[in-house]
Amino acid sequence: MSEDWNTKYGTRRVRRDPPTLEEAIFAAVGITDDQQQQAEIAAALMGLPYEEVLAEVKKTGRALARSATRVITGEQGAQRSVVVERRVVRRFGNDKRTGT
């Protein structure tokens, strides 16, 4: 799927790719939390049957539920961020170049 158009520099071609099913589901997840509505949105974007998309949305929902980010709120409802930094310690054996 490409389209040609003319510019002062010559003919240019623009490639237009339809979204993948995963991209359509990702977009629908960003719009609503309801899985049925997500399936309707993704099916409309892709032009696929609702039942087929609903099965994929449910699979994606299960995977997202396992890796969901948790937000801790304080007494007044203010969100707090917790940053965990891990320092990587690299230990090397005897270095052949220095002889140590």
UniProtKB/TrEMBL annotation:
<protein>
    <submittedName>
        <fullName>Uncharacterized protein</fullName>
    </submittedName>
</protein>
